[in-house]
Amino acid sequence: MKLSSNLPRLLATAALFLSVLSCSENLDSSGVCSVLCPVIGGDVKNITIDAVVVGYRPGKEEGTVGSLILGLYDPAGKLHVVGHSSGLRAAEKRALVERLEPYETGKRGHGDPSRWKSEKDLEWIELRPELVVEVTFDHASGGRIRHGTKILRWRDDKAPEACALSQMDA
Fold first, then answer.
1. What is the pLDDT of residues 98-121, one digit of tens each?
2. Domain residues for 85?
3. One domain for residues 66 and 133
């Protein structure tokens, strides 16, 4: 496709982006994405799901959790990793180590290399799939959460097996 055929779309996107930024200083990435992604062809979900906590990545600081690894069950009962949630507050990062320790299986591994920092170590610690969290996110594609995942609350009232992969289709 030629640049000239995309130019009107690019200019409209740039104008919209500038108007959005000028309207609100406090607009977060999910707000910008919800406005811009439909214009530029992104896949916006902006939905809430319940997910199983299948593991975690240690934080940069000793004795902290960096992110939770999230999974969902397919109809055959197989658990699939669909993404992770970081953005934890400092106090949460420390408190989660104690909360998650009883669920550790003793297995550790390394994730696929980061798309952004290939030298980054993506060690993860596996957990028994017994904990459920409610999360929201603003972008998903290919059956994976890609951006903007936030933990809303722990779901002690929800069975892990009830966290279905079909939620990603909503």
1. 999 999 999 998 765 555 555 555
2. 47-169
3. yes
